[in-house]
Amino acid sequence: FSMYHQRGPIAIMDSLQNAIRAEKSRSEPFVLFLLPCHYTPLYTHLHPQPMSIIPNVRHLDCSPFSARPNESERLNIDPQNLIEDLSGEQGFQPSLIVTFPLYAQKLEEWLSKNNYSEITRVSNTHFNGDMDA
Predict the structure, then answer these.
(1) What is the pLDDT of residues 21-44, one digit of tens each?
(2) Which of 10, 45, 48, 52 is deepest in the core (most CB within 10 A)?
(3) Which residues 6+ apart lie within 8 Å of 46 measured at CB?
(4) Edge-to-edge strands, sheet with 56-59
(5) Given a cut of 60, is residue 133 above it in pLDDT?
(6) Which residues have a Cβ under 8 Å from the Cβ of 68 and sit 6 or more positions away?
(7) Rounded CA separation 60/38 (Å)
(8) Tens of pLDDT along 53-94?
C-alpha cells in the first residue's frame, strides 16, 4: 500500500524528465506547474545525472498574507482567469504543463486552442482524493 499511495508527485517528475529530453530537440524546454504550492519535488528530480538539460520552470506564486488571492488560490477559484493572466506575461510560452485532471478539464478550451495535448497521466492513490479524480 505505501509504495503506491500518493506517489503521483514522484511519478510525474520521472515522466517529465523524459518529456523534457524529447522537447529539448525542438526548443528550450519551459515547464509550467499548474499545481497547488509545493506539490512536486521540482529541481531535485529534474536534474539527476546524466540529464544535462536545465528547463525553464514556472510555478504558481504562493505568497502568504496578501490582500488578494495568490496564484495558487486563484487556480482553485478560477483557473481560466488565471491562465489568461499568465499567458499575458512576457515570454510565457510553456512547452509542457503539469496539472491535475480537474484543472485540465476546466482549461480544456484554452489548452486545445494553444495546441496542448496530454502526454502522460499518473495516478496518485488507489482512492479518489485531492485532485486525482
Answers:
(1) 776 656 677 878 887 776 666 655
(2) 45
(3) 13, 16, 17, 20, 54, 55, 57
(4) 56-59, 30-34, 96-99
(5) no
(6) none
(7) 9
(8) 667 778 888 888 778 899 999 999 999 999 999 998 888 888
Omega prior to 50 cis, within 30 of 0: yes
Please report where in the chains the cell 479518489 appears, as a residue.
Answer: 128
Contacts 24+ apart (CB under 8 A), 76-85: 76/36, 79/34, 79/103, 79/106, 79/107, 80/106, 80/107, 80/110, 83/34, 83/107, 83/110, 84/110
Say if residues 118 and 53 touch (Cβ distance below 8 Å). Answer: no
Give the three cell numbers for residue 100. Answer: 491535475
C-alpha cell at 86: 499568465
3-state SS of the chain: helix, strand, coil percent to 5? Answer: 35, 10, 55
CA distances, 77 to each of 3, 26, 40, 73 (Å): 32, 34, 21, 6
* pTM recorded for the entire structure: 0.72
- Whole-angstrom distance, CA of residue 52 vs CA of residue 56: 13
Residue 50 per-residue DSSP state: T
